[in-house]
Specification:
about 190 residues; 4 helices; single chain
C-alpha cells in the first residue's frame, strides 16, 4: 500500500467521520428544535390552562361575592321588615294600653257608681258595663296587651254577672273577690307593657 492510498484512505475516513458528525449534529439540532417546539407547546398549553383556571377562580370569586351581596341585601331587608313589624306591634301595644287604661278607669267609675246605687237603679249601670265590655272587645291588642285585655274583660264579665244577679235576686251576695282577682291580674299585665 502506498502512502498516497493510505493518505487518501485516512482523508476519506476523516471526511466520513466529519460528514457523519455533521449529519448527526444536524439531526441533533433538528431533534433539539422539535423538543424545544414541543416544550414551548406544553408551556403555552400550561399557561392557557393556568389562565383558564385563574379566570374560573375569578368567576367563582365574583359569583360568591355577588351571592354574599345578595344574601346581605336579603338579610338587611328581613331585618328592616322585622324592625318595621316590631315598631308596628309596639305602636299597637302603645295604643291598646292607652285604650285599656281609659276603659279600666271608666270601669272603675262604673263600679264605684254601682256600689253606691240602690238595687232598683242598677239597670242603666249594668247596660253601660256591657257596652264597655263590647268596646274593650273591639280594642286591637298586641302581644303584650292581649293578656291585660283578657283580664279586664273577665273582671267586667264577673262584675256584670254579680250586679245582674244582685239586681234580680234580693238574697244574692256580691262576690267582690272574683272581681278583685281579675283586676289585680289586669293591673300586673298592663304594668308589664311599656
Amino acid at each position: 500500500m502506498n502512502i498516497k492510498s493510505l493518505i487518501a484512505f485516512v482523508v476519506l475516513i476523516a471526511i466520513g467521520i466529519f460528514g457523519y458528525s455533521y449529519y448527526s449534529s444536524k439531526k441533533h439540532e433538528e431533534r433539539l428544535a422539535i423538543m424545544q417546539a414541543e416544550s414551548a407547546k406544553v408551556q403555552a398549553e400550561t399557561a392557557r390552562l393556568e389562565a383558564e383556571q385563574k379566570e374560573t377562580e375569578r368567576s367563582r370569586a365574583f359569583a360568591e361575592a355577588e351571592k354574599a351581596i345578595s344574601e346581605n341585601r336579603a338579610a338587611k331587608q328581613v331585618a328592616e321588615s322585622k324592625k318595621i313589624e316590631l315598631e308596628a306591634k309596639s305602636e299597637i301595644d302603645k295604643q291598646a294600653k292607652e285604650k285599656l287604661l281609659n276603659s279600666a278607669k271608666r270601669f272603675g267609675d262604673l263600679g264605684s257608681l254601682a256600689f253606691n246605687t240602690p238595687r232598683i237603679a242598677l239597670g242603666p249601670i249594668i247596660r253601660d258595663m256591657q257596652n264597655l265590655k263590647r268596646e274593650v272587645e273591639a280594642i286591637q291588642t298586641g302581644e303584650c296587651t292581649e293578656s291585660a285585655k283578657k283580664y279586664l274583660m273577665e273582671s267586667i264579665d264577673v262584675t256584670v254577672y254579680n250586679f245582674s244577679e244582685f239586681f234580680g235576686d234580693a238574697d244574692f251576695k256580691l262576690r267582690g273577690n272574683a272581681m278583685t282577682e281579675s283586676l289585680e291580674k289586669y293591673s300586673k299585665a298592663i304594668d308589664l307593657c311599656k
